[in-house]
């Protein structure tokens, strides 16, 4: 599919997911050769209507150059005229494109070496007829498109075979939030002002995403382990996902695989490696093959990132903490002699998971602090909450975390310090949260 048509589908995905009735399109898309029967069965298995519509649009982008006009044709034939007009208004007349550059584009032999020699002769026969055909695309012959779509080399992974995790259970699963705010004096760790704001936002957000949310506050190391063990021993067989959110101080620890640890309020820490291990496929059989998501907003790490200069085109206005007006709100949480006064306190640490179906999202890059505003909460959680609210209905989790990375990277503490979140993604499929109808 041409890039401009892909962008049209992506730009209008919200409307397509909301309004498209894919069940009316299956026969037409199969007859016109846009999808095979196996691919249509795969789309049907995605779940409810919205999930099927989303998967259909994603898979459509991987089809041949005529998939887009044939899709428009199917929309018109099934009475879904408003969606067809929505897409047509942003697309130049498709039928005019093959006629003009007939002789220029004709040497379609250039990309052929990418394929195996066995397929060259067949590909030439398949693709050459697509360009000089002068007939309008409003009544296209389906056979060239079938021939163009079908001959994929054996052994080459099909992008359209990427599946989505099943996420239609109600409730979707358990979400455990551990929010450590007030630390014992003997721990030598400061209280985490603003963390309750983060906790309230995430509790509301994951309830809206149809999770059973349980919040635990001010836990010692032993209590953190107890709650994770209890979550591990639950029967998750009727659920599709599990989420753990850690809001606390953190530190770097000696490790074999996963760097980073989260503190209890008693000053004793739990390695992130151990936190993820509670829910892996070996220790929690009822979550095997299901996504386990960990979101870590944990202070720790001594380095402050001052960033580097970029061109003005790369710079966008910061969402918070960038103006000099913020400098008197609080003091950075640190045992150093840094005397800079500011409202943003240092906050998080990263780690690396290896088990399948696990994603760990961290508020900052390993070795660097992250920032928490004592009045508004942390940059990471504030932006994560908003991105989930605005995009969960249409975008997968990986895409949304990339949005979070970008927006947090635009912030500055006192116009000096930067922050770069990141995630370690060992999911095997796309993950779409349930969205409110």
Automatic annotation (TrEMBL):
Domain Caspase family p20 residues, every copy: 171-303
Pfam family, one: Peptidase_C14
Domain Caspase family p10: 348-435
Superkingdom: Eukaryota
Keyword Thylakoid: no
Bias (Pro residues) ranges: 131-143
All copies of domain CARD, residue ranges: 1-90
Keywords for this protein: Apoptosis, Hydrolase, Protease, Thiol protease, Zymogen
Biased composition (Low complexity): 333-343
Ranges of biased composition (kind: Basic and acidic residues): 119-128
MF terms (GO), sorted A to Z: cysteine-type endopeptidase activity
Active site (record annotation): 249, 299
SUPFAM superfamilies, alphabetized: Caspase-like, DEATH domain
Matches recorded under InterPro entries: CARD, CARD_CASP9, Caspase-like_dom_sf, Caspase_cys_AS, Caspase_his_AS, DEATH-like_dom_sf, Pept_C14, Pept_C14_caspase
GO biological process, any: apoptotic process
Residue numbers spanned by region Disordered: 116-159, 307-353
Gene3D superfamilies: 3.40.50.1460, Death Domain, Fas
UniProt cross-references to PANTHER family, sorted A to Z: CASPASE RECRUITMENT DOMAIN-CONTAINING PROTEIN 18, CASPASE-3
Similarity remark: Belongs to the peptidase C14A family.
Protein name: Caspase-9
Lineage of origin: Eukaryota, Metazoa, Chordata, Craniata, Vertebrata
């Amino acid at each position: 599919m041409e890039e401009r048509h892909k962008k049209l589908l992506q730009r209008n995905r919200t409307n397509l997911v909301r309004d498209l009735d894919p069940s009316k399109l299956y026969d037409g898309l199969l007859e016109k050769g846009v999808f095979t029967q196996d691919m249509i069965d795969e789309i049907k298995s995605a779940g409810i209507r919205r999930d099927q519509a989303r998967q259909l649009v994603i898979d459509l982008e991987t089809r041949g150059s005529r998939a887009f006009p044939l899709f428009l044709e199917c929309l018109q034939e099934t009475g879904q005229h408003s969606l067809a007009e929505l897409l047509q208004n942003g697309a130049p007349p498709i039928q005019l494109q093959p006629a003009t550059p007939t002789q220029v584009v004709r040497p379609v032999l250039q990309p052929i070496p990418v394929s195996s020699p066995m397929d060259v002769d067949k590909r030439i026969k398949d693709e050459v007829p697509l360009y000089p055909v002068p007939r309008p695309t409003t009544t296209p012959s389906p056979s060239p498109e079938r021939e163009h779509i079908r001959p994929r080399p054996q052994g080459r992974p099909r992008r359209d075979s990427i599946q989505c995790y099943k996420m239609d259970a109600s409730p979707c699963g358990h979400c455990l939030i551990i929010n450590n705010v007030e630390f014992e004096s003997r721990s030598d760790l400061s209280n985490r002002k603003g963390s309750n704001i983060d906790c309230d936002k995430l509790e509301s957000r994951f309830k809206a995403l149809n999770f059973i949310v349980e919040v635990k506050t001010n836990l010692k190391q032993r209590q953190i382990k107890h709650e994770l063990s209890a979550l591990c021993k639950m029967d998750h067989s009727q659920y599709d996902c599990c989420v753990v959110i850690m809001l606390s101080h953190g530190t770097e620890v000696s490790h074999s695989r996963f760097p980073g640890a989260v503190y209890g309020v008693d000053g004793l820490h739990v390695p992130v490696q151990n936190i993820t291990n509670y829910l892996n496929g070996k220790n929690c059989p009822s979550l095997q093959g299901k996504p386990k998501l960990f979101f870590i907003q944990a202070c720790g790490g001594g380095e402050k990132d001052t960033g580097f200069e970029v061109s003005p085109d790369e710079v966008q206005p910061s969402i918070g903490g960038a103006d000099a007006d913020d400098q008197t709100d609080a003091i950075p949480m640190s045992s150093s002699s840094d005397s800079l006064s500011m409202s943003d306190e240092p906050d998080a640490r990263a780690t690396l998971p290896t088990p399948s179906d696990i994603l760990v999202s961290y508020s900052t890059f390993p070795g660097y602090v992250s920032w928490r505003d004592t009045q508004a909460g942390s940059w990471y959680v504030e932006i994560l909450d908003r991105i989930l609210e605005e995009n969960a209905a249409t975008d997968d989790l990986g895409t949304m975390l990339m949005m979070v990375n970008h927006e947090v990277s635009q912030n500055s503490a006192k116009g000096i310090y930067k922050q770069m979140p990141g995630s370690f993604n060992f999911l095997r499929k796309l993950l779409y949260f349930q969205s409110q109808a």
